[in-house]
User: What shape does this take?
Amino acid sequence: MQLTLDLPEAVFTALRLEPTRFLDEMRLAAALKWYEARMISQSKAAEVAGVSREAFLLAAGRYQVSAVQSTPEELAEELARD
Assistant: This one.
């Protein structure tokens, strides 16, 4: 599916990005935020961002988004099951 988004040209110059690179960064930022908010999984976030799961996890590190989205309690429960 293709969508059209109207943005002011100042957006591109503010971030010093070409429009196609800006779009890539925007997709990645949205995917990272939705993943961080626990709205989507890692694999779905990578798909939204248009990158591999490995590339998504590397980007998460660059943007200081934790790759682990479990609470300490959830991790303890999971370990107790094993």
